[in-house]
Amino acid sequence: MGIENIHVVRESFFRLRDLIQKKEGNWLSGLENTGWLKHIQSIMGACCRIVDFIDQKAISVLVHCSDGWDRTSQLTSLSQLLLDPYYRTIEGYQVLIEKEWLHAGHMFSTRSGHIGKRGTTIDEQWSPIFLQFIDATYQILQQYPTSFEFNEDFLIFILDGVYGCRYGNFLFDCEKERQNHQISRLTPSIWVAILNEKEKFLNRSFEQNNRVLIPCPRMRALKLWTKYYLRYDVSMFDWS
């Protein structure tokens, strides 16, 4: 389906990071050259094909990438997000991450760079695969702003939980490792934190519906998630 591997995605993210930090030259052409939105487009396009097979043609779909815990998790989770309105609620999205990412064996510690230094073997396995999933969710949320119970602050909070290591849910590379280190007993859960502050994550425009979503994956419909990627850019704030 044309979805690139972890190494290509990593280099694309590094180009995006450099573009944001340096702000040199033409911003729009620089953004295009990072290839970041192109990768998001590929993922969303593949999910739309899966949804079409299941919803319109009543055909079962088997999804499996080379290892089964990166692109597979992206496609299965996003496809379910489009097909089933339950997963567009706060509770449902948590369930989706638990079953398609955590219990499916996505290597959060390795892919998120929780351990190791730049230039090491571990660093070569770092790749923002889960970030792509959250970014794609944001893109769908922008196209269907009334179909989600949660807002983009909810998505940002989850990403901060992944990379900040404050919560135990995303530590280590599999459920067995988390059980062996008694993570559920020794660390706080991000889901509890979200429920305690649920009000600030609610989408005030949410309207309950049973629609199957078919987002537009064309480049003109996608945009850089500025509230996440540029949130520490002082030029984004009005100081008047």
Q: Mean pLDDT, rounded to whole units?
A: 92
Q: Determine the N-to-C terminus distance.
A: 48 Å
**Total of helices:** 13
What portion of the residues fall into strands of 2 or more residues? Answer: under 5%
| Fraction in helix | 40-55%
What kind of sheet is the major sheet?
none
Number of strands: 0
Low-pLDDT windows of residues: none
Structural category: mainly alpha
| Order of SSEs | HHHHHHHHHHHHH
In one word, what is the shape?
globular
Structure description:
By secondary structure, this protein is mostly helical. Helices cover 54% and strands 0% of the residues. It has 13 helices and no strands. The longest helix has 21 residues. The protein is globular and about 50 Å long. The termini are far apart. The mean pLDDT is 92.
Gist?
The chain has helices at about 5-20, 25-35, 35-55, 70-85, 90-100, 110, 120-125, 130-145, 150-165, 175-180, 185, 190-195, 225-230.
What descriptors fit this protein?
single chain; 240 residues; mainly alpha; 13 helices; globular
Task: Write the topology of this structure.
Elements: H1 6-22, H2 27-34, H3 36-56, H4 71-83, H5 90-102, H6 108-112, H7 121-124, H8 129-143, H9 152-164, H10 175-180, H11 183-186, H12 190-196, H13 226-229
Helix pairs in contact: 1-2, 3-4, 3-8, 4-5, 4-8, 8-9
